[in-house]
Specification:
The complex is a heterodimer of chains A (about 475) and B (about 550). With about 475 residues, chain A is an alpha/beta fold. Chain A has helices at about 1-20, 20-40, 55-65, 115-130, 145-155, 165-180, 195-200, 215-230, 230-235, 255-265, 290-295, 320-325, 330, 335, 345-360, 360-375, 405-410, 410-425, 455-475, and strands at about 85, 90-95, 100, 160-165, 185-190, 205-210, 240-245, 270-275, 300-305, 315-320, 385, 395-400, 425-430, 430, 445-450. In chain A, helix 5 (about 145-155) runs parallel beside helix 15 (about 345-360) and helix 18 (about 410-425) packs across helix 19 (about 455-475). Chain A starts with a helix and ends with a helix. Chain B has helices at about 1-25, 30, 55-80, 110-115, 175-190, 205-215, 225-240, 255-260, 275-285, 315-325, 350, 380-390, 390-395, 400-415, 425-445, 465-475, 505-525, and strands at about 35, 50, 135-140, 150-160, 220-225, 245-250, 265-270, 300-305, 330-335, 360-365, 375-380, 450, 455-465, 480, 485, 495-500. In chain B, about 40% of the residues lie in helices and about 15% in strands. Classes of the chains: A alpha/beta (about 475), B alpha/beta (about 550). Chain A: It is an enzyme of class 2 (transferase). Chain A: This is Serine palmitoyltransferase 1.
Chain lengths: ~475, ~550
């Protein structure tokens, strides 16, 4: 009975073959032949064809000489020897064996050797040890991290925050998480190196506008609008972003945030704001450039900052609406594929936040000191002060910049000499360092002067005099 | 007519099943033999045994079906959410920005919304103690199927930790290392506030670099604050346009990012496959750059010591032989193998008994075996001098935190035996014993384990998507914390659970864990292996002597 049943189905199948339309049979036949071909074919290699004999190939392999792995670095390359700091880089810093007053570390609020912060870090060390031994996804999320994220979100008055274990990696991982190939990013020329690396990793189309020049930006946006009208379908899926910094590290001035927000709504572009230098510095409560200009924080899509300046810890964070930030938990490369921040450093950051919240006067004091330093450094022969009066990290550039990079570069050793002389006189300043060949728009050489809350008036006067004398001696 | 259609449907279905199994047939794990023994036996001083057992065909089919069903349900749920029949938990764009170009494509997040979200409770589990051999987990519950979590306030105590990268057990809050780190915190503070080239180069960093160079047996080394960034910031400094990078198929995201940022041409060779690598090298040198046929400026081979998703160890003797023959440069990323392999804990070079000077660039991280954070690069003095002047990290990124540097110094001295105790040697011994024991027992139980028999990273195959979630949850019920991984970190049908053995695990802990794994394995039918247990003496022997 089974056999007849099977036979019956077989007959049905054969009948089906006869009744099927020809094209359908042909299609199925081609499919089956294709499967058979796949089963038996070798994988297709691209460079298969070669007109060279084996002997010639061996000769080519013999002859090929690679370049040396790294080019030789001359012994007196200026960046080869680093200044060695013995002990903590605090207000009184010991550089190359000499005790100096620190005008070079970004310790704006003086939290580096704050006792409360150290006590919290020690308590955390005694509870958790040092390292986290895993990325956030695999038992590397500690309750300290969650607490720090909540506190940061509350402090900045946003919905959510996400922490990274390295300041540089923060914006460099955030940008490629949102901006992909084919998207357009408008960036200020003075953007810092980590933003440039983030842009490079994102493979998007990048358009630079002149530093703080809103007309130039508007021109680029208008051009883009014209492009969009030619191809509306593509325009509907191309995301656009503007990336700016709150306080630029290279030029120490502020971005015009209210105009940027206007441009955002006019041309439908999202804003990413990098606030490493302005977090904990600008604004009545230290919330950064949005508080400084009184802009609604929800108008900024993403704020990114590192905790290595005012907060005096290690790492970085991004904050914004959950809609934006949550995406980075699965696509931020520096978040998913890297070990999380050591808990003691997170605890130090939490305590720093506590201090910032309890005592908002420190921001006013810091701004006063910045103004004082800015005024004292005016009138140095040969050097001009670059930066806003309330910026804590100023640049001293050549007064008569020749405008060409080469001649400015030749003045480089003189900047170094000024720094050395200052170090000799117990004032620690440093030359602002850049990678000459890697920067897109290399800033002019300058000396970096950093203002911290721990500097006294006497020390500021002494520093100004010292720099003046060194400049007179060397740059005349 | 309907019966005709049904027959046609069955034919189509059958052809698709055949195509899927063909695709599976050609996947890398099928092509590797079982119990692969190294050829070129003369280069290896001891047996090199790696297992990559084939995926059983029925399991592969069922896994595809599982994903298919999940996808159908995903579409259904999206439809219900769009029509507001189901409550939508997904965060939405602001009202004022509704007419902006959408920030995410709906399709990009399909997987996250519909597959990942169902089993999300297996990842990002918060802990509130030292990530040692036993840890305390923060208990969390979800009332809306993993969209949001609430902390109940209770703590699950003494969960056996099979997930943290704690190979030598240095994740501890007591002992010499912790005391040294505490002292460093008291003296230096937590942060540094400046870059290496400006005012952030502390004496601690110089001390650390000298010690690392001595540990590895190289001329000089340089330390960085983040392991991921070590790769992504230094590979671009070493190669550029006109150079060729040959990278292993399964390299870590940081190596891939570094290679992409450098601007060099990238070619990928099959995982740990020396024939594939040799062929690429020959083709590259003979044919030169594409289209112009100019010779390549330099060729850099990127490999890892232990591949953390596969548990395999790189065939270093063969790679070095190839590199010398074809004059290429070798970049070895020892993130997981430093401290975990080798009689002295000095990594995969020590494990094979080779000369560290043969590896041009030795890179590694301090996160795994040293209980700290950060990365290093070691090599000849010219290399390190060049990196000191040209590395992106030295100029733009803050240097390593001093207590972290102190922890590395203390733990490294302990491993080398310079702290006056035998602790380092004991831990290395313990790790090696634990690894052998654990792998042997899992084999005996009948699970499919991947990787080299000496690697402390043990991936155990789960395959089916539902089993990923089930395994993680069942193990947690039995108080064991495991790590499960699925797509996209692994190929779609090869989801796995990954165990990281630590020197801090005692035999009792391993036995407890193994009992629980066996129990869950029976419950979920995970014992797929069809081989009898290979005994370690007979078929792990070298074949031909070259």
């Amino acid at each position: 009975k089974m056999a007849s049943g099977q036979q019956w189905v077989l007959v049905e199948m054969v009948q089906a073959f006869y009744e099927a339309p020809a094209y359908h049979l042909i299609l199925e036949g081609i499919l089956i032949l294709w499967i058979v071909r796949l089963l038996f074919s070798k994988t297709y290699k691209l460079q298969e064809r070669s007109d060279l004999t084996d002997k010639e190939k061996e000769e080519l392999i013999e002859e090929w000489q690679p370049e040396p792995l790294v080019p030789q670095v001359s012994k007196d390359h200026p960046s080869l020897k680093y200044d060695v700091v013995s002990g903590p880089p605090s207000h009184k810093i010991i550089v190359n064996g000499k005790e100096c007053i620190n005008f070079a570390s970004f310790n704006f609020l003086g939290l580096l050797d704050n006792e409360r912060v150290k006590v919290c870090a020690l308590a955390s060390l005694q509870k958790y040890g040092v390292g986290t031994c895993g990325p956030r996804g695999f038992y590397g999320t500690f309750d300290v991290h969650l607490e720090l994220e909540e506190r940061l979100a509350k402090f900045m008055r946003t919905e959510e925050a996400i922490i990274y274990s390295y300041g540089f990696a923060t914006i460099a991982s955030a940008i490629p998480a949102y901006s992909k190939r084919g998207d357009i990013v408008f960036v200020d020329e003075a953007a810092c190196f980590s933003i440039q690396k983030g842009l490079q990793a994102s493979r998007s189309v990048i358009k630079y506008f002149k530093h703080n020049d809103m007309e130039d930006l508007e021109r680029l946006l208008k051009e883009q609008e014209v492009e969009d009208q030619k191809n509306p379908r593509k325009a509907r899926v191309t995301r656009r972003f503007i990336v700016v910094e709150g306080l630029y590290i290279n030029t120490a001035d502020v971005c015009p945030l209210p105009e940027l927000v206007n441009l955002k709504y006019k041309y439908k572009v999202r804003i990413f704001l990098e606030e490493s230098m302005s977090f904990g510095v600008l604004g009545e409560h230290g919330r950064g450039v949005t508080e400084h200009f009184d802009v609604n924080i929800d108008d900024i899509d993403l704020i990114s900052a590192n905790m290595e300046n005012a907060v005096a810890s290690i790492g970085g964070f991004c904050c914004g609406r959950s809609f934006v930030i949550d995406h980075q938990r699965l696509s931020g490369q520096g978040y998913c594929f890297s070990a999380s921040l050591p808990p003691m450093l997170a605890a130090a950051a939490i305590e720093a936040l506590n201090i910032m919240e309890n005592d908002p006067d420190i921001f006013t004091i810091l701004r006063e000191k910045c103004r004082h330093v800015h005024k004292s450094l005016q009138g140095i022969p040969g050097l001009k002060v670059v930066g806003e009066p309330f910026a804590p990290a100023l640049h001293l550039q050549l007064e008569r910049s020749s405008g060409s990079r080469e001649t400015d570069m030749k003045m480089l050793p003189q900047h170094l000499l000024v720094c050395f002389q200052c170090l000799d006189r117990q004032i620690a300043v440093t030359q602002a360092r850049y990678l000459d060949k890697e920067e897109k728009f290399l800033p002019s050489p300058s000396i970096r002067v950093v203002v911290t809350i721990e500097q006294t008036e006497v020390e500021i006067e002494k520093a100004a005099n010292c720099i003046r004398e060194a400049a007179l001696a060397i740059l005349k | 007519v309907t019966r005709f259609n049904v027959n046609q449907q069955m034919l189509n279905f059958a052809s698709y099943i055949i195509i899927c199994s063909c695709v599976n047939f050609f996947s890398p794990h099928f092509l590797l033999q079982n119990n692969h023994v190294a050829r070129n036996g003369g280069m290896y001083k001891k047996p090199f045994v790696e297992y990559f057992e084939e995926t059983p065909l029925l399991v592969a089919v069922l896994t595809y079906m599982g994903y298919g069903i999940l996808t159908i349900f995903g579409y259904l749920r999206d439809f219900l959410r769009d029509w507001k029949i189901e409550k939508c938990h997904v965060a939405r764009e602001r009202e004022e920005q509704k007419d902006f170009v959408p920030l995410y494509q709906d399709f990009e997040n399909f997987y996250t919304r519909n597959l990942y979200m169902r089993i999300r409770d297996n990842w990002n589990r918060p802990i509130c103690s030292v990530p040692g051999a036993k840890m305390d987990l923060v208990e969390r519950v979800t009332h809306d199927y993993n969209w949001t979590f609430e902390h109940t306030g209770k703590v699950i105590k003494d969960v056996i930790n099979m997930g943290s990268y704690n190979y030598l057990g240095f994740a501890e809050n007591t002992g010499a290392c912790a005391a040294a780190a505490a002292e460093a915190t008291q003296r230096y503070g937590a942060g540094v506030n400046s870059t290496r080239r400006e005012m952030g180069n502390l004496d601690k960093h110089e001390e650390l670099e000298v010690l690392v160079a001595r540990f590895l047996g190289v001329e000089a080394s340089m330390a960085f604050g983040m392991g991921f960034a070590t790769n992504s910031m230094n590979i671009p400094a070493l190669t550029g346009k006109g150079c060729l990078i040959l990278s292993d198929e399964l390299n870590h995201a940081s190596l891939v990012l570094g290679a992409r940022l450098s601007g060099s041409a990238i070619r990928v060779f099959k995982h740990n496959n020396m024939q594939s690598l040799e062929k690429l090298l020959r083709d590259a040198i003979v044919h030169g750059q594409p289209r112009t046929h100019r010779p390549w400026k330099k060729i850099l081979i990127l490999v890892e010591g232990i591949y953390s998703m596969e548990g395999s160890i790189v065939r270093l003797p063969e790679v070095i032989a190839l590199k010398k023959k074809y004059k290429a440069y070798l970049y070895l990323d020892e993130a997981h193998s430093i401290g975990a392999l080798g009689p002295g804990g000095k990594g995969v070079v020590d494990y094979f008994g080779l000369d560290p000077r043969d590896v041009d660039i030795m890179m590694g991280t301090f996160t795994k075996s040293f209980g700290a954070a950060g990365g290093y690069i070691g090599g000849k003095k010219e290399l390190v001098d060049y990196l000191r002047t040209h590395s992106h990290s030295a100029v733009y990124a803050t240097s390593m935190s001093p207590p972290v540097a102190q922890q590395i110094i203390a733990s490294m001295k302990c491993i080398m035996g310079e702290d006056g105790t035998n602790l380092g040697r004991e831990r290395l011994q313990q790790l090696s014993e634990n690894t052998t024991y654990f792998r042997r027992r899992l084999h005996e139980m009948g699970f499919i384990i991947y990787g080299n028999e000496d690697s402390p990273v043990v991936p155990m195959m789960l395959y089916m998507p539902a089993k990923i979630g089930a395994f993680g949850r069942e193990m947690l019920k039995r108080n064991i914390g495991t790590v499960v991984v699925g797509f996209p970190a692994t190929p779609i049908i090869e989801s796995r659970a990954r165990f990281c053995i630590s020197a801090a695990h005692t035999r009792e802990m391993l036995d407890t864990a193994l009992t629980a794994i066996s129990e869950v394995g029976d419950l979920l039918q995970l014992k797929y292996s069809r081989q009898k247990t290979p005994s370690l003496e007979e078929d792990a022997y070298l074949e031909s002597q070259d």
